[in-house]
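Notebook entry, cofactor series.
This is the third protein in the set we're modelling with a bound small molecule. For this one the ligand is flavin-adenine dinucleotide. I'm keeping the input format identical across the series so the outputs can be compared line by line later. Sequence and SMILES below, as received.
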Amino acid sequence: MSGQLFNKSQTSRRTFLLRAGLLTAGILLNGCLRKLGGRKADYAHITGNLRGPNAKAGHMLRDKVPLPSPTGTSTVKTLIIGGGISALSAARWLKNNGETDFKVVELEDHAGGNAFFGTNAVSSYPLGAHYITLINNEDKKLIDFLQETQVITHFDDKGLPFYNEYYLCFDPEERLLINGHWQNGIVPDFGVPDADRRQIERFFKMVTQYQQAKGNDGKYAFTIPIDESSADETYRKLDNISFTDYLKAEGFDSPYLLWYLDYSCKDDYGRHAKDVSAWAGLHYFSSRRGKAANAEPNSAITWPEGNGWLMKQLRNQISDHLLTSHMVYSVGLGQNNVQVKVMDLAKGTTSLIIAENVIMASQQFVNQKLLTGITRPGVDYSRMNYAPWLIANITVDKLPSPEKGMVLCWDNVAYGQPSVGYVNANQQDLKLIEEKKVLTYYLPLCDKEPRLSRLTAYSRTYDQWLDIIIPELEQMHPEITPHIEQIDLWLWGHGMISPAVGYIWGETRRQAKEPIADRIFFAHTDLSGISLFEEAFHHGINAAQQVINKYHGA
Ligand SMILES: Cc1cc2nc3c(=O)[nH]c(=O)nc-3n(C[C@H](O)[C@H](O)[C@H](O)COP(=O)(O)OP(=O)(O)OC[C@H]3O[C@@H](n4cnc5c(N)ncnc54)[C@H](O)[C@@H]3O)c2cc1C
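Returned structure with ligand:
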């Protein structure tokens, strides 16, 4: 979850200004449950549900269930398939460039994809993506969007952005439970022997050098969006070995360091360090160089609903063009157009949409099912690995106290546990009543290969998930169980693409970006191999710009 690696000590200015200021001003800002039988007695009071993306629609596509023939036909200049960040970003770009004849079709009953969120009586909370970090200052298009949405309020006389104090993560930002004590920051420190500390220092020195390193083409070795990274083989060949093998070759063997790096891979990629490439493992630490006038490097920017907030800013600009509960089930080439078959999931009817252009902002494993009569040379879908995730939004009436060490932070992680911890969704909240909280717990399902993990996950019941989550929570917070009121679970079967060895700079990813017949274009974080808001934002713009260039030239 959290990528705040270098700013272990934070000032408490934001918390003080915002919380204290608003509290004294007296500002008060103010789900479907089921009771379960057969539950362990200790959990009997806990309500909640297990949910996820529309599985019925997913199975219709997977099993190619025969659907009724389309009854109506409509036309549109550009059809965007999907309603995640990539799709919404493409839609915004078309609109801002005067291309207003477009539609966005999303199979869920809401836009957002992995950046979707939930809300209950206590707080809004993320169901997937939950933060961004300071943006690299050369990323003009994203900086413009953040300025348009007041995430960046203004610039200082050196051109450094001021980030909105309400959205910079309030202090304290992150803590780690290690050796029976909550320490400040997530890099292991408390009770860590000197020899391990020296390795940790050596690792950070190395990635700081990589952060500034440029290839023989003058480009940064690691950057965001990743396609702007250097083509220099010195760096790209790191995609051909696993992160674990790379660390071994570099002489890193401290269990504390290796735990931390494995946690980081699970956190950002949903996989262990042994299952991602060294290029991806280093990218996590070396691609962010954003500077702000009022925040430390690597500061997190977040909201109670996580990136759902950013999603709404995109969605609200194009909501007139958005059709939810509409599933595309076939995409084929016509004479001079693209023929798209769509099912209205609410009515159960189907129709044909004839478009001049289609932007497929849906996942590649879905595209494989949708593209009818079209082959894509060089695209080997079996090389695309999707990490499954379980997200639990845990509502507590309070956290048991006292705790040893650092107080509750936004990001809270326990050393050596299967999950990557939880974020306090209320951290950015301005309510006076602070005891009740929603804790968003993230469990990457990475101990088996993704397909097996996915199958196992789908077979687990709500109660079986509680048997995994609650013991871990008890280790973090003894006696927490009676304080848990509700646990809402969300299972992402194909949560995010993961950067397996050879994927990022391999043939499949390169070919998957290629348009088909100058009419079908692609936009999705699958095209990066690293699933980040920034990547989605840029894929949307790139695909929309390809459409615009057809009519107005590059
Ligand atoms: C657990 C988790 C945590 C994450 N945390 C972060 C984070 O903190 N920060 C961050 O930057 N990123 C995070 N991410 C990554 C996140 O996935 C990306 O930031 C981004 O939201 C991906 O957007 P997208 O548009 O590329 O894809 P998606 O979100 O996958 O969107 C694809 C959309 O296409 C729709 N679709 C699919 N098939 C069809 C069809 N046949 N017809 C119509 N619509 C269809 C889907 O329903 C979906 O809405 C996280 C991801 C997960 C799973």
